[in-house]
Amino acid sequence: MSRVEVLWSPTEDNTFITYGSAINLYQVDGPENSHFSKHPESSLKVADQKYAVHCATNSEIHFIKCAAWYPKPEPKNLLAVGQANGRVVLTSFGDPGDDELIGKEFVPRHSRQCNYLAWNPVESNFLAEGLEKFRNDSCVVIWDVNMSHSISETSERSRYSSSEHGSITRPYAEIGAQDTSSSFAWFDGRNFVCGMNNRYLRLYDLRDPAKPRLSTQHRTVYGVCVDNQNSHRLASFGESQVAVWDTRSFDRPVFTLQEAKPVSKISWCLTRSGVLTVMCKDSPILRLYDIRHAVIGCDDIEPVIIDRNIQPCGEHVMSSFAWHPKDENRLLAAAGPSCIKDIVVFERIPVAWSPNSSLTWANGKRTMSCVDSGQLNAQDISTRMRHRALSGYGMQCEDMQANAIVVADEPNLLALWKWISLVRQPQFQRPNQQGKRGAVYNMGIKQILKFYNEQSNPMVSELAYVNWQATEGVTFAIKHQYRSAERSLALSLCGWVQDTHPDFNNHLNALVDNGEEEKAAAIAIFFLKMKKALEILSASATTDNGKLNLNAVAMALAGYNENSNHLWRQTCASQRSQLADPYLRAIFGFLASDSDYYEDVLNEEGLSVEDRVAFALTYLPDTQLRDRINRLADDLVCKGDLDGMLLTGMSNEGVDLLECYVDRTSDVQTAAVTAVFSGTAQTMSDERVTTWINSYRTLLDQWALWHERCKFDIVSQSCEPSVPHPPQVYINCNFCGKSITSNRTSFRLADRFMQLNPFSRSPQQQRQKITCCPSCRKALPRCAVCLGTLGTASAFSANVEQPTLKSGQQKLTLLQDWFAWCQTCRHGGHAAHLTDWFRDHCDCPVTGCMCKCMTIDSTDVHPASS
Amino acid sequence: MVSVISSVDTGHEDMIHDAQLDYYGTKLATCSSDRSIKLFDVSSGQQVPIADLRGHEGPVWQLCWAHPMYGSVLASCGYDRKVIIWKETNGSWDKLYEYSNHDSSVNSVCFAPHELGLVLACGSSDGSISVISTTGDGNWDAKKINNAHTIGCNAVSWAPSTSPNALFDQGARQQPAKRFVSGGCDNLVKIWREEDGQWVEDQKLEGHSDWVRDVAWAPSIGLPRNVIATCSQDCRVIIWTNDGTSNHWTSRVLNKFSDVVWHVSWSVTGNILAVSGGDNKVTLWKESVEGQWTCISDVNKGQGQITDQRSSSVEPNYNTRRRLDL
């Protein structure tokens, strides 16, 4: 495979050339280009979705040794090409046009190999050429390409026969007589460095080319290049050694790097400081050295070098590479004429999460943000929790079902909310022991049935013999049911209404209205109301709702026969599992079961937990019932299934269940809310519960949902008044430093004011009295807006002796008169006045205060619901 | 799906090494090889420059915001062996404290959970880790763990505080455990615990076969278990878990990537792990209910696009890095 060199255009972002035996011009196309699929054969695939389209070929020049791209955009694609005989040709692609530069030729005195060409990037008329040694001739020749050949065409023309017309033979400057030059680099305008005579690195200034400004003797004279981010820093190589130099101490290299193989090319990354790329002979690997060298004070820290190998062309041996002059970290790598890759070498990508689940990351010198939406949002519990909080989830303690409506699309939570609201009915309240607490809403089935405290009077149930209520003239065997006060209570917690209750039929009708005919029929059957069940099924069969033909089910039911050997029961037992609806399966399972053996119903997983438990409550004797419920509860606790809260209630086991649920789902919100709504003093002191509540409060804080956080605190306070929330702010008097809020003397003071003004009944007047510090009697600060002295009776509402909010509420001052202030500048005033002020302003109302109070902790990004 | 909504030029003159959002996600801090730290207000959805902090004399590697209860406080660390704590007062940013007691580049800084006070851990290339704390009276105290990782420490991350706050505290609860995790050039992940005022090695987790590049202790919301994500030059991300009661840690390889993995970070609730690596991708990972880690999204930052498959055109590999002695 012939050797191929690559060069990026210095001015066009997506243009490059390859040269070897001919020069080819390519244009890189991204995937956005429409003709992506119909690239001609000559195009190269340079990246996953990028093609380099072959634009032109220049094959007029033979024996190409090196090429350099003119640094200015005009004339377009102008190249200087150095040939094996030392001749330099300026050329381009296609029609040369009328630009006078194109076609110019520069010829050294004696023909010898050209080693390099380098345009001065600033004064682009200067072109440096490096040559092999020839007698007394100079090895570095600087051409001025603007020099017209008429000037050079004087006596020189006759001395050196130039066959072609237009050749320029007189250089602008010549350096290094009797030497050979192997490498060259311009820097800082007219300065340049070159490797000479296989021994020397020399720095010159073009204004004084007679002698080098600096010179050093070292073997590494090849490929000298200047870090364009730091022009003091040079690199060069020789054999398998790479040396990095600092021009400020040029006598020896800053350090050297030893490679395993001879080096063939080195280059600094053009867009990043201190990244040196080294290519070795016969190697598929490019090695990137990230040199981190900082001079701090006067002592040098040893340079840290992080090396990284990249293999852009797979196993192919690298032939050449070129860093893109402008695009960060973009590298063109060539392993042959048809194997060229356009890659971007990435570095560490820092990523930052924002609390609302958006990602920000940095890429090179830029930052990019990315917001997750759709699929990710729906999946992630944290965005769901945030959404729920904004919809008022867990903050509505008057109507529990309002919370359930928020999460109506999450079926696993519905049973929980049904339990939370049902358990608030008065029949589930236990007598209040401490006398201090309000109601406790923690009852689960297991508490009602007294399963938790084993010793104290266990439940005793009585056996009841119940007859079927079928059509006239038909009688079936009597069924055994169990009844007790506890069982009745538990049944109603399951949402069932007993058949003895006057609302029984209404309950079934409600289920039918709700579209749950199967469930209604099943409950009717379980209570041995065959006739009612048949009515329900036949009635619903007339309404065509696309369900299974319930008429057929009614027909099958009507044929019920108790004889265990009868064909009906055998068919029923074998065909039951074909039914799609779990309640229909349960109906036939119940009918087909042998007396008092109901495993088919109890193990019917399709039935909701409450229905299975309710069935067990009706038909299982005490010991079996206990066994069954304990097993079911253990299972649900292990799975963290919230349906199990019905069984455990807010007991220690219930906390275990919530723990498993949180472990499984991370839904700390539901756990915290459940704990607040149903907690007892005992569970509230459980470390897990406090952790959930605090985690949830912290989350609300972090989302800047201040209002929701306050509402949650209020809800948890009102649900659990026995656990006092300490105030989160204190107001101290500016003069005496004593608190003016929680100071007990203030109560007495207030009382005294009341006593002093026995005729003043207006609370308005009373509030206005307290405008001074209760302990030192100095005036309180003034409102920044109305300039009236602050001071309201709001503090007295937090009466410790009457902790319930209800009694406190009567004394609460209107919010608009409350103290409010900026936590940063500490200026403030009446809440209403400040609200008005900040509606139009974002800076502090106090003259001379530069505080932008409104923008601090602004919730603009996370608009709160209120 | 994931979409890139903005791409903004920060004005840094060199590589950005870290980007951090503050507690509320309203301020973004970036730091770069150009020795500067830039702050942006991102609350409006735009990046509005606020400040340009200059004080480091070399590339700045990493940043960390303190909890807002301490005000607007930012820590930075850099190649110049310095750790600087910056604080905003009345809109202007100043150095609050400068710590320069490391012998080599400081690679990582991390503020402890706010319950522990204003405490900062710093990991350095000199192999040591410093824990700096203040009592708030302007005095700073530093404790140093010497030789924490031979060759150097690359990353530190604090364990979330599991202590309930004073609101429900019934007293008689023990002091919250102070723990953090570190990763280093000795391919090890270590957990450190404070015992009687001294920092001792609590765990040594072996699993990576090359330099550990980043460590991240997952935030916990009510979960007793501890989860740590680590990533390494060996192209792997490992998830370490501990049930919160025993001293036993189990490891699970999240994925073996095609290139070095530089960075791991957890979402605020610890549900999603973002991984960025040399393969140009930011990938998001989530643990299923069954405990399997799955990639839920793949962001190709190069083009700002989303791709479903991994790029195969570039197959770089890494050799061991070295520090040269003169």
Automatic annotation (TrEMBL), chain A:
GO terms for cellular component: cytoplasm. Belongs to the WD repeat mio family. Signal peptide: none annotated. Residues 385-619 form the MIOS-like alpha-solenoid domain. InterPro entries: MIOS/Sea4 (IPR037593), MIOS_a-sol (IPR049092), WD40/YVTN_repeat-like_dom_sf (IPR015943), WD40_repeat_dom_sf (IPR036322), Zn_ribbon_mio (IPR031488). It comes from Littorina saxatilis. This is WD repeat protein mio zinc-ribbon like domain-containing protein. Pfam families: MIOS_a-sol, MIOS_WD40, zinc_ribbon_16. Keywords: Repeat, WD repeat. The keyword Repeat applies. It comes from the Eukaryota. PANTHER family: GATOR COMPLEX PROTEIN MIOS, WD40 DOMAIN-CONTAINING PROTEIN MIO FAMILY MEMBER. Transmembrane segments: none annotated. Residues 733-854 form the GATOR2 complex protein MIO zinc-ribbon like domain. GO terms for biological process: cellular response to amino acid starvation; positive regulation of TORC1 signaling.
UniProtKB/TrEMBL annotation, chain B:
The keyword Protein transport applies. Keywords: Lysosome, mRNA transport, Nuclear pore complex, Nucleus, Protein transport, Repeat, Translocation, Transport, WD repeat. One of its GO terms (biological process) is protein exit from endoplasmic reticulum. WD repeats lie at residues 9-50, 53-87, 205-240. GO terms for cellular component: COPII vesicle coat; lysosome; nuclear pore outer ring. It comes from the Eukaryota. GO terms for molecular function: structural molecule activity. This is Protein SEC13 homolog.
